[in-house]
Amino acid sequence: MEAIENLKNRLIDEILVTKNKQLLEAIEKIFTSTRNKNVSLTSEQIEMLEMSVQDIENGNLVSESNLDKLDKQWFD
Description:
It is a single chain. By secondary structure, the chain is mainly alpha-helical. It has two domains: 33 residues, no CATH class; 33 residues, no CATH class. The termini are far apart.
């Protein structure tokens, strides 16, 4: 948690000293665009996420290295 507080404080410090109006407007736009975003998922997307959770819980996972090997076999 300390890392996020340090990051916030560094950002606040930078915001307080900047005179770059375009930068401040861009930061404001980022905050505005990410605030109160309600994500709506389709029933199919929810089902896929639930299936993914089940796969993780059941240990049905493929390591990145094994996935790379499978990709190589597929593309060669």
